[in-house]
Amino acid sequence: MILAGYVTGGAARGLGVGVIVTILSLFFTQLHISHFWITLSTVILTAIVFSLGGFINAVYANSFDDISIVPTFILTPLTYLGGVFYSISLLPDFWQGVSQLNPILYMVNSFRYGILGVSDINIVFAFAMIIGFIVVLSAYSMHLLNTGKGIRS
After folding, report:
1. What pLDDT was estimated at residue 95?
2. Closest Cα partner for 48 from 121, 124, 153, 141?
C-alpha cells in the first residue's frame, strides 16, 4: 500500500502538470487526437512508469543533489535516442536494434500513434513493453521496500 500511495501521488502530480501544459498549449495551437483512448492510456501508463522510476531514484539518493543524476545522465540520453525527434526507421539497422532496447521508444511511439495515428512500432507490442516496464519496476520497488533499502532511522 505504501508503494501504491507513492506511485499514485507521483503519477497524479505528473498528470496534473501534463494537463496544465496541454491547456496552456491550446492557446497557441489546435490539438487533433487521432486515437483518444490510446493517447489517454499511454499518458497514464507513462506517468506510472516515471513515478516508479522516481521512487527508485529517491530510494538510492543520499542527498537532494543525488536526485538529478538519473534525469541528467540516464533520461536525457534515452530521450534523445528514443525516437522523440526522428523516426527510428531513419537509423541504420544496427542502431534500430539498439533503439529497441530503449524504454522511452515505446512510450514515445504509443503517444505518437495516439496523437498522429503513426508509429514505428506495433502499438500492441509497445503497450506490452510499457506494461512490462511497470511490472519490473513495481517488483523492484517492492523489493526495495521489503528489504528496507533507503529507509532512514
Report:
1. 87
2. 141
